[in-house]
Structures are given as structure tokens and as C-alpha cells.
Fold this sequence. Notes:
By secondary structure, this protein is mostly beta strands. Helices cover 5% and strands 52% of the residues. The chain has one helix and 28 strands. A four-stranded antiparallel β-sheet has the order 1-28-27-26, with no helix packed on it. Strands 2-3-4-5 form a four-stranded antiparallel β-sheet, with no helix packed on it. Strands 6-7-8-9 form a four-stranded antiparallel β-sheet, with no helix packed on it. A hairpin with a 6-residue loop joins strand 26 and strand 27. The longest helix is centred in the N-terminal third of the chain and has 16 residues, at 3-18. It is globular and about 50 Å long. The two termini are 34 Å apart.
Amino acid sequence: MSINNNNKVDELIGYFKSHCKIKEHQSHSAKVHSVGWSCDGKYLASGSFDKCICIFTLSPDRLKQETTFRGHGGSVDQLCWHATNPELLSTASGDKTVRIWDTRVQKCTATINTRGENINISWSPDGNTIAVGNKEDLVTFIDTRCIKIRAEEQFNFEVNEISWNKDSDTFYLTNGQGCVHILSYPELELLHVIKAHPGTCICIEFDPTGRYFAIGSADALVSLWDADELCCLRTFSRLDWPVRTISFSHDGQLLAAASEDLVIDIAEVETGEKVSDIPVEAATFTVAWHPKQYLLAYACDDKDIYDRKRDAGSLKVYGFPNE
């Protein structure tokens, strides 16, 4: 490892020693499944088992709840923002719909009926297509320009998370057999199958530069891949439980990974070295780095401190400066 990288890791470690304050917000009546930042970093959204989506704004030292979107008839399992329009948010729900919300008018602007209970959603970087996966391993492709279903693809294996490459012309899905399937879009022809892990591949995320993607697996490993060569560059192995959620920082330098471990691991991408970790009290469902600064939003299976049977319904943000 070069001296430069040593210095960089030390600098990052030092940064988080002075920026490790956590802000918590209790806004839902049930567990939070998904969090995500708008592309400009102005808004943070959380989707919950309570069927609601909460929108927060970020000030230098805190989060402020702005609005709550209601309308879904089932759990909001995953959400994602438009890659270039900071006002548009899409949500996937167990109520067999996908919804698009606009923060300017503070309401749902489109509802798309699908054939099953939706659990995964991914908006293509060009903004033209939303892909949504359901519990029966059917992936539906919605053209957002005309709000119509463009294609449906039924898979004969367990489909977990789905993602697009930076150019929006290839589509990636992780499966229960430890593989990543890569399809062309819009043709949906199978281009490659990567045998990535011995265990189920649970989550996938592209770094902001488009050079890499990372996969979180049931074998408790995170693997980092070269997006052009489709070769594995390194693995991150500090967690002991299946990796449920991963996120790259805005500059692609950091990778956060979380599981049922009582810690969220933050690694430097180029070396795999640990930069920081965040202690948590329960399994983590979702992590998301801010698109411009080192702030990590996350939500865990936290319980109410006064009633252990009740969900806390909280989300947290790590990385504020210590007083």
C-alpha cells in the first residue's frame, strides 16, 4: 500500500473522530425499512412499515421533519430519488403499487399498479425508467415519461436487489444463488452472470463514479467489483452476519455496510481498511450516504425504550461535528 493511501486513511479516521455525533429522529409508528437522500442532499426520505414516507430537510446541525406522504395501503419497503431531479421520489410498496411523489406539491403525482407485492425499486440514472421487483421475482419496468409499464420479466430464482449502471443501458440484479445477472436495457438480453459469492447476494450498489459496484452477501462479505472488467478487486470482511445494506460516499472513497451485527462498518474503498464504525443496538435495515458530505443516514430494528414490544420508528444520521 502506498504512503498516499496510508495518509488518506489516517485523515479519514481523524475526520470521523471529530465528526461522530449522531442525530436521531422518531417520526414513524413502525420500523423504517428504507432511507435515501435527494440528489442535491436537501431532503432525506424514510419509508416505513407504517405505510408512510417522511421527508426531512437538513440544516448544518440537525434534521427537521417537513412533511409526511400518505397513500400507500401497505408497507413502504424501498424508496429511491430521481438521479437529477431533487424533487421527485419513487416508492415500492406491498400494496402492489409504485408511487411517484413530488416535494414541490407535497403529494403523489403518479400511481402505477403492478402485479405483486413490491420489495425493491431502482430509478435509472437517466430518469427514464423505474424498475421494481416483487416477492414473486417479477421485475417490472416503468417508463416514467408516459407512466406506463414498458416490460415485465419473470425470473425463476430469488431476485434480491436491483440496480442500473451509470449509462442506464445495463441492468443488474442479485440473486439467491450467489450470482449477479447483468441484462441489456431495453432489450433485457442476458449479457453476463457473475458467480460472486457462495451465499445469497442480497444488495448491490454502484459507486458515484460508475467505476465500481459492491455486493453484500449472506456470507457476511462485501465484494468490490470493477464495473468494466467485471472482476472482483477486494472483499471487506469485518461483519459476521449477512450484509443487508451498503452505500458508497459521494466521492466514492468510503463504503458503509451493515447487517445484524451491532455495528455499521465504514471502510476506505481503495484499501478496505476500517475508517470508522457506528455502534447500533439492533439489526440495521438501511444505510445511505449524503450526496455531498460525510453524513450517513441509517435505520435499525430499534424498539421503544419504554415498551420493548413497540418499534421505535426512528432514523439516525451519523457524522455531525462533535461539540
